[in-house]
Specification:
By secondary structure, this protein is mainly alpha-helical. It has one domain: Large-conductance mechanosensitive channel, MscL, domain 1 (Non-ribosomal Peptide Synthetase Peptidyl Carrier Protein, Chain A), CATH 1.10.1200.120. It has five helices and two strands. InterPro entries: MS_channel, MSC/AndL, MscL_channel. Belongs to the MscL family. Keywords: Cell membrane, Ion channel, Ion transport, Membrane, Transmembrane, Transmembrane helix, Transport. It is found in: Cell membrane; Membrane.
Length: 137
Amino acid sequence: MLQGFRDFILRGNVVELAVAVVIGTAFNAIVTVLVEALINPLIALFFDASRLQDALKVTVPTLFDGTSTFAFGAVIAAVINFVVVAAAVYFVIVLPMNKVNDMRKARAGIAEEAVPAPTQEQLLTEIRDLLAQRSDR
């Protein structure tokens, strides 16, 4: 039982996952500062996003003489925040990194050729031919 656990821990996937979590946590700080320092002030030029959380509230009576409030504005604000963060990460970090990687590959002479995947018939034909070669020996 301990041997299986040791094999699991020493597998490359677990170490890579741990490194990814640490890097992701550090990257989160960059994204947070980017959004708070640049993106949110840019949005504030056009409208006050903080007022959206207080808007679109629906209060309904409960069965026990109380009230329950549905804050649709907060949900919409969270969705907008997610889209803004995703767009910021894509356009500021992912897209430039992809361009840098493409330029590096071009300099190294690595061409990306789209090789179409073989069809099922082609694969079956290849398997048939390989089996025929084996049986001829």
